Amino acid sequence: MEFPDLGKHCSEKTCKQLDFLPLKCDACKQDFCKAHFTCAAHKCPFAFTKDVQVPVCPLCNNPVPVKKGEIPDVVVGEHIDRDCNCHPGKKEKIFTFRCSKEGCRKKEMMQVSCDQCHGSFCIQHRHPLDHSCKHGGRPIGAAGCTAARASESKPSGALNTLSTSWLARRLRWKVKR
Could you tell me which residue ranges the AN1-type domain spans (predicted)? Predict the structure, then answer.
């Protein structure tokens, strides 16, 4: 034994092993070996001071404070009934901005407003010519003029597909006869 003062003996009554790198328990402040340093391994009498768990609300993910002697499930239940900001039955609406064009019932996630009349419109009616804007004339810029000409010259997509499907049915009916 060249270094008798080096290391410490394990504080566990059944172990007493000399350990050169002992670990100190946070609760009882005694030194233990690698096998007995956890509170459960050495049956620490002060483990309750370190075994503190804070329940989390399953709806809003916020910690719910629990006082000593209270049952965590009851406290979380009271939090859900009174203080919780998130209500499971009430869903937030995503599509809230309704189109201002007469006859259009579409809703958008983001507000698309007209620069001239400041109305809220869907993507299809966002241009002044598409919603018959009363506060302005022709769109400004080459891209706007091109879009206006394209929308005036071609029929709308829904009308075009309707007439195409009608024509296809009519041709099939003639072929069958």
Answer: 4-52, 93-141
